[in-house]
Amino acid sequence: MLESLFYPNSIAVVGASRTPGKVGHDIVQNLIDGNFDGTIVPINPTTDTICGLPCFKSLKNFRDGNIDLSIISVPRVAVLESVKQSIQAGAKAIIIISAGFKETGPEGAALELQVAGICAAKKVRILGPNCLGLINTGHKMNASFAGSMPTGGGISVISQSGALCTAILDLAKGRHLGLAKLISIGNKADISEVDILKTLANDEQTKVIVGYLEDIAVGDDFIKAAEEASVKKPVVILKSGTTAAGLKAATSHTGILAGSDTAYGAAFKRSGVVRAERFEALFDFATAFSMQPLPEGNRVLIITNAGGPGTMAADSVELAGLKVTELESNTASALRAKLPAAASLGNPVDVLGDADPERYVAALLAGQNDPYIDAIIIILTPQAMTRPAETARAIAANLDGKKPVLVSFMGGQSVMPGREELVSAGLPDYESPERAVSALKAMWEYASWKKRPPRMVTRFRVNRRRVERIINRRLRTGRTHLGEVKAKNILKAYGFQVPDGYLAIMADEAVEVADRVGYPVAMKIVSKDIVHKSDLGGVRLNVKNSEEVRDFYDLMLLRIKQRAPSAVIDGVYIERMLDPGMEVIIGMSRDQQFGPMLMFGLGGIFVEVMKDVTFHLAPITEAEALQMLKSTRSYEILKGKRGQKGVDLVAIANGLQRISQLTTDFPQIAELDINPFIVGGVGNETWAADARITLRPLSK
Amino acid sequence: MLESLFYPNSIAVVGASRTPGKVGHDIVQNLIDGNFDGTIVPINPTTDTICGLPCFKSLKNFRDGNIDLSIISVPRVAVLESVKQSIQAGAKAIIIISAGFKETGPEGAALELQVAGICAAKKVRILGPNCLGLINTGHKMNASFAGSMPTGGGISVISQSGALCTAILDLAKGRHLGLAKLISIGNKADISEVDILKTLANDEQTKVIVGYLEDIAVGDDFIKAAEEASVKKPVVILKSGTTAAGLKAATSHTGILAGSDTAYGAAFKRSGVVRAERFEALFDFATAFSMQPLPEGNRVLIITNAGGPGTMAADSVELAGLKVTELESNTASALRAKLPAAASLGNPVDVLGDADPERYVAALLAGQNDPYIDAIIIILTPQAMTRPAETARAIAANLDGKKPVLVSFMGGQSVMPGREELVSAGLPDYESPERAVSALKAMWEYASWKKRPPRMVTRFRVNRRRVERIINRRLRTGRTHLGEVKAKNILKAYGFQVPDGYLAIMADEAVEVADRVGYPVAMKIVSKDIVHKSDLGGVRLNVKNSEEVRDFYDLMLLRIKQRAPSAVIDGVYIERMLDPGMEVIIGMSRDQQFGPMLMFGLGGIFVEVMKDVTFHLAPITEAEALQMLKSTRSYEILKGKRGQKGVDLVAIANGLQRISQLTTDFPQIAELDINPFIVGGVGNETWAADARITLRPLSK
Questions:
Q1: Percent of chain B whose pLDDT exceeds 90
Q2: 3-class state of residue A498 by DSSP
């Protein structure tokens, strides 16, 4: 897809330099040092040779396809001209190393747009500007000033921070890890993480994709590309800026609780992206993914030559939601014969402090053969009789490659030879058992995602036209808030049941409506100027007869006149009181990047104080909606605890699916709360008892 | 205190060997290689020299104080005799390296007890058995077979796992960290973590104590020793076995929620111990503590040469509960002059990708001089112009040592020279900014603990005799459960207000009582055979008049006869209904190690479903009790949210303090729940509305 960028035959370096340490020099030198097979064309008006290669004054002589890829490292003022000449020379891809664009302010941003426009017109792709370049070990191409060529391998890296590229490159070298591609995406004037994800998904050399991202250009595209990539290979991403979020103004509960980090979390979960929470985790996870098969289940065997670290590992396994499973009895008795009597055959299997490589191998084989074990963690501490290097070799020689085996050789100098053996044999090694367990957890989560059932989004029959009319009418008035009555009309059109009720504008009419819907009734003031109705005396519940309706109607109007004299009153909404059920909140807040984020939580304090809510991106399936319920801490209450009857979970899931459809159909809906959504036992009716919707005008 | 163990002049090695690799050889060799200044006396019946030293057939010739410390590494059967001979030779301390004791079963345990008994009688201290020995770099003594002598330094290590000792030693060497002492405590037949904590607390060479523990011998002693040590220097402990807990049978809410790990957490918190959750954290924290001053506050400045890692660090700082604070304006403008225009002077301060050492120094000085900054984190990524080693030297040269400075040089090979400079200059360096932040958080927590106000435990005037009588009478019957009535009598004696009420054994009497206490009343069946009263129809609330009392009395007895025919009924308890207030739970569960653990939680679902509870060890101060309330997620509800009035927090704290006193006074009380404890607004009465107590017989 980005063939000319990743696999060029000829590369021009515009702004090449004779001075070591200068970017224009280092790129040429890196290309040479990396043994690039094709043609390297240094461009510099003032010299004849650079790094031993003939240097050209300008690209003007290279027309009609002589150049595949142009790397531009010139002062900002000269970038535009260099881009034009590169295109004329036939470049199909351009890497703009130079900085001074969007990151510096409006002027730079304008120039960046201009450059991007010219390239787009000619179908030339740009990487950068303000980037480090690109490395493709599979093409022996180090088109960067990031440092020397890494060893080839299965890990590809996308980074929005050039500095992190060099740190990662440096780290990979220190750990003897092999890289496939490394791409510094810089300002993403054209090529973004989405393009790179698509390319790497189809790159055979790449076994795992590792990314550092600060923002994402287009949420939907990212989700699609990430999901397609995740189906083929693991995508591990570190996203920074997680706490800086939450700056947008929000009025609904859902909006207040839905930070942008929550949205990223939901997007990653949807698309199977494995999230790294710390820098180390990027490589801890990538190593495991690139070297070992995925686990079939979550049952872990721990093998150790010391009790303490074994216990530490077992603790971590349980905290990670994986299982510490004992060996099946046949496997255990076979192993018993091969270990000293003092060895412990529980889990952890303790092969004892004086364990030789044979004992480790015996335990490893037992774990590999045991049908009830899905993954193995091996711990070695350097004790008097320990032979780290031989043990590493023996473990490596006996792997059957069917279950993931992760290793922690604890210590420093004395286990170092063992560690190197491990890495070269394709066994991921971790400083501590806890880090090995974190990596295994990531593998299990990814494996579970891969096995997820096909996503079937239900389309309900709804009255879309009606909603369209209500929304358009409201937007035409210039108002964006939809109060209870209008919001309920919209919900009704999408299959929600709302309490029977009508707007009354006189006391007589109120009584008439109440007689019709049946007692007791609820009475609520309707005014666009009043948001917190009950605070002003604008709500009366459980009104029992016509006399009370009349009294409270007059009293309510009196109170509102006293307390909010300037409010324009539409009338009083009279509705039948509902049978009590459990009150939950379902809602939606539209994320700038990822679109509608659905929320679920138990009502009242659970949402307001305990923040016990879950989010999921729309469109949502029934299974996903049910999973949202399960993910709350208060799920036990929904299910019914201690003999109490639970509520109709499917009915709540149905409500979430309908909101999903509504907010997917109408991008004008910015926020929506159904609070409370009343739900009873299975088979009972559900009610959207109160609701509010906030709109945003669609830009033309 | 353990002078002969840590600072012996002469050391016997019983079971010394000529064969390299054997423990008895390695210990002698390690003593020699470590340049031990005193006399080394190898004992072996079959040879004349070992490692060039004259070897003796037996210790029998060394009487009357010739030997200070004896290290025994002989087969288990010969240990007892070797111990006796060591004592006769004058040894005041014995290290038993040999294994085969408590860890192997009852026989080994018996032998261990016998050996301990003999030594105790002669006031000779034992380290081990089943240990690796001891290293004291301050005495040039490597009395272990753990490996070669580490560099001297300020970190002392206690480990209950010999294997971890070697791993730690190995790691310290790899990281160029200096150690003071390393003690492998093995089976702890005599010397335990408590003795070592006391010794290290007073050891001038030791700046920070690092421990790996699997269990703790005596909870109270540990807390006392740990607290005394923490006052002088940081104590960092990794405790394994955190999830294996919770096996004990518990009947109260408090008991069910109070796992042993919770108790360890509470004990560590009380005694100022910094808890490490992962193996890496032990050294990450120890390095920071041993090299840098404690922060005075929690405001952190981040200095970086790359945006991405800076954001990552800022995220971590906020997640850790520390503050990302901008430079004060004077400091900022002074710094502005020294940095390029493109540099960002927010927080993080971005000194840009091409930063030289001078820019780092300028930012460091700004941070050091700024009165609103308490700690500094410096991040360096290896970019084209970066000079890691010089930058490290420049930073080190400009430290004023008043605020903690933690560094993360990210990457591998290319930053390695810088890392080594950092360590040798006393600057803790971390693989990632996140790890530096974790270490800083540990420092801040420890600094806060050190500044805690003096602990003043209130003693209330109570009727202790009365409780003693109730408890003894109940224990004499062989029953351990105290039902509502008896439990309330106990609480009353400790100053709790309980609703006015009496036991009625006839309907007439019930009416009489109800008339006396006033309507409405609550009626509850009293029977030692019935625990869940309301499930059987044994509770009636809001009984309004005498006729209802009579009806429900008869109905209740009828129902109980039908539903629990074999239950012996004491009668029906009639009490005045309470004014509604907020229902909370306060309780106590006695931990085997650490004694009474107090619990607080909001009532009902908050405890049962949300597990939103906090624990604290008794005795508790008012400040600590208030802190317990604050630590719940539901604190917002207690305080009163959105204009609602809050409850009387001090009254709840008072209740916790009274339970603290009660359960400290009476070790017979195993579990206690006051559920609900009803509390209203400030000045309102509080009520112990229901209660249960479980006793345990005190062993004679």
A1: 67
A2: coil
Q: What is the distance between the alpha carbons of residues B425 and B436, in angstroms, rounded to a whole number?
A: 17
Pick one of 2.115.10.20, 3.90.199.10, 3.40.50.261, 3.30.559.70 as the CATH number of A293-450. 3.40.50.261
- Residue the block writes with tokens 């004291």: B136
ipTM for the complex shown: 0.83
Considering only CB atoms, A214 lies closest to which of B21, B175, B308, namely: B308
Using a CB-CB cut-off of 8 Å, the residues of chain B touching A169 are 411
Q: How many CB atoms lie within 10 A of CB A330?
A: 12
- CATH superfamily membership of B292-450: Succinyl-CoA synthetase domains (3.40.50.261)
Mean pLDDT of B305-334: 90
Which residue of B lies nearest to A279 if distances are taken between CA atoms? B432
The whole-number average pLDDT for the span B493-509 is: 92
Q: B172 to chain A: nearest residue by CA?
A: A412
Alpha-carbon distance of B693 to B217, in angstroms, equals: 27
Domain covering A1-130, topology: Rossmann fold (3.40.50)
CA dihedral B192→B195→B197→B201, nearest 10 degrees, is: -170
Residue B459 has pLDDT above 60, yes or no: yes
Q: Enumerate residue ranges in chain A where pLDDT < 50.
A: 244-250
Task: Determine the pLDDT at residue B147.
Answer: 81
Asked whether the beta carbons of residue B633 and residue A609 sit closer than 8 angstroms, the reply is: yes
- Three-class DSSP category at B108: helix
Paired tokens of B648: 């009387």
Q: Note whether A265 contacts B: Cβ–Cβ < 8 A.
A: no
Question: What's the CATH number of domain B454-497+581-700, 3.40.50.2300, 3.30.470.20, 3.90.1150.10, 3.10.20.30?
Answer: 3.30.470.20
Overall pTM > 0.90: no
Please report the sign of the dihedral spanned by the C-alpha atoms of residue A254, residue A260, residue A266, residue A270.
positive
Of the candidates B283, B159, B443, the residue with the CA atom closest to the CA atom of residue A432: B283
Give the model's pLDDT for residue B244.
46
pLDDT above 70 coverage of chain B, percent? 96
DSSP letters spanning B139-163: GTEEEESS-SPPPEEEEEEEES-HH
Distance to chain A for B73, nearest Cα, Å: 14
Overall average pLDDT of the B192-201 stretch: 96
**Is B412 at the interface with chain A, CB within 8 A?**
yes
- Could you say which residues from 151 to 190 on chain A have a Cβ atom under 8 Å away from some Cβ of chain B? 159-164, 166-175
- Please determine, looking at this structure, whether the domain spanning A582-695 carries the CATH number 3.40.50.720: no
Q: What three-state secondary structure class fits B685?
A: coil
- Residue B144 · residue B135 · CB < 8 Å: yes
Question: How much is the pLDDT for A246?
Answer: 32
Interchain pair B173, A244: CB under 8 A? no
Question: Is residue B64 over pLDDT 80?
Answer: no
The answer to whether B231 faces chain A, any CB pair under 8 Å, is no
Q: pLDDT tens-digit profile of B270-301?
A: 999 999 988 889 989 999 999 999 999 999 99
Among B residues 15-54, those touching chain A with beta carbons less than 8 Å apart: 21, 23, 26
Nearest to A163 among B342, B383, B413 (CB): B383
Sequence ranges of chain A with CATH classification 3.40.50.261: 150-291, 293-450
> CB–CB of A432 and B636 under 8 A?
no
Q: Cβ distance A504 to A572 under 8 Å?
A: yes
DSSP annotation of A59 reads G
What mean pLDDT do residues B251-261 have? 63
